[in-house]
Design goal:
175 residues; mainly beta; 3 domains; 3-stranded antiparallel sheet; 0% helix; 49% strand; elongated; EGF-like domain; disulfide bond; repeat
């Protein structure tokens, strides 16, 4: 029997044999006395670690993408897991508000804001302007173009969780 199964990996892969007791440390680690494997196992939260470049990396295997974040949690880049190419580059104002997104071809979408930092409109790569209506709670309520509503959004209270989206044809999707 291999008693090291699960060491250094995911908790779901640990092969416990006769766990006899549990303890929680002040930092939140869970310790398991694994009597049958004659060892103590430590479970910790799976937090991303800083890279040597000082960025956090999160992956989406399903999308085959790598997301890179600054130490304060700002999404800076999206890269392809397959090729390593940069797919998206996000830029921000000095206040930390998203200002533009560039794709790998260099096509840029820009977000324009008022003096208080509230988003007003999005300028798409072809020059199309999409007007944004933001609620008092800071959530996107409406997207329109050429004085025509394209989408209306509602949320569950002030949670920020999307409740519905209604499109320009009147179709509503409930989440």
């Amino acid at each position: 029997m291999n008693s090291s199964l699960g060491d250094g990996g995911y908790a779901r892969d640990a092969k416990l044999k006769s766990p006899s007791s549990l303890a929680v440390s002040p930092n939140g680690s869970l310790y398991i006395a694994d009597l049958g494997n004659v060892r103590i196992r430590r479970l910790t939260a799976n937090h991303p670690q800083l890279t040597p470049e000082g960025l956090y990396e999160l992956t989406s295997v399903a999308d085959q993408e790598l997301y890179l974040f600054s130490p304060n949690g700002t999404h800076l880049f999206t890269r392809s897991l397959v090729t390593g190419d940069y797919l998206l580059n996000f830029t921000y104002t000095p206040e930390g508000h998203l200002s533009s997104i560039a794709n790998r071809e260099g096509t840029i979408a820009q977000l324009r804001r008022d003096a208080n930092g509230v988003p007003l409109w999005l300028v798409a790569p072809g020059g199309q302007v999409y007007w944004l209506t933001i609620s008092n709670a800071g959530m996107l309520k409406r997207i329109s173009a050429l004085a025509h509503d394209l989408a209306q959004l509602s949320y569950y209270g002030n949670t920020g969780l999307l409740a519905t989206i209604s499109n320009e044809n009147g179709w509503t999707t409930v989440y």
